[in-house]
Specification:
It comes from Sphingobacterium bovistauri. This is DUF4287 domain-containing protein. By secondary structure, the chain is an alpha+beta fold. It is built from 7 helices and 6 strands; from the N terminus they run ααααααββββββα. It has 2 domains: about 60 residues, no CATH class; about 110 residues. The radius of gyration is 16 Å and the shape is globular.
Length: about 180
């Protein structure tokens, strides 16, 4: 378990008085089918931040990298029926990892998170023909290509890609900015 994850679990207990296992039990008793339902429930009914709600949701559904016996299997599953988008993932992974030696890759069922002190890029296939890059660019203006998400979300912006040529200098600049913001 990495230090950031350990710290988050410790802080969850300090903030809420409940352990991660206790939160997982609460969620499982609700019989939610979808991750988004869990996150919404925890945020609305228990006033947890998105980060903690997301952590509990993934752990309760065993859909995070820490729950998976083989992280490569999580990535392979993401591209079943979406094989044409896999080269975009591979190219972006090389570019993102080239930013520094302090980056952790955390695959989940639907996407892959890249983290430093916190997540700064979230990438994965959104549909069979559309790939999404989520970025943390707080207080940064949206453009036609750089789509604004919720300001308090883990990804404040997203960029849609459909082919490997969409990985251009503009996108790489935004990724670098997000990487730099991951310590602020």
């Amino acid at each position: 378990m990495d230090k950031a994850f350990e710290s988050m679990i410790e802080n969850l207990y300090k903030i809420t008085g409940k352990t991660l296992d206790e939160w997982i039990t609460i969620v499982k008793n609700e019989n939610f089918n979808k991750h988004g339902e869990i996150v919404k429930f925890l945020k609305e009914q228990h006033q947890l931040t998105h980060g903690y709600a997301n952590l509990i949701g993934h752990r309760s559904k065993s859909s995070d990298a820490a729950s998976a016996p083989d992280k490569d299997d999580l990535i392979a599953q993401q591209y079943k029926g979406k094989e044409a988008l896999r080269p975009i993932y591979e190219a972006l992974k090389v570019k993102v990892l080239g930013l520094g030696n302090d980056i952790e890759i955390a695959p989940k069922k639907a996407n892959v998170s890249f983290r430093r002190a916190k997540q700064f890029v979230l990438i994965g296939p959104a549909t069979k023909t559309r790939f999404e890059v989520g970025l943390f660019l707080k207080n940064f203006p949206a453009t036609e290509r750089l789509i604004a998400e919720k300001e308090d979300a883990m990804c404040t912006h997203k960029v849609n890609l459909s082919k490997i040529e969409d990985i251009d200098e503009e996108l790489l600049t935004w990724i670098t900015m997000s990487y730099s913001n991951a310590f602020k």
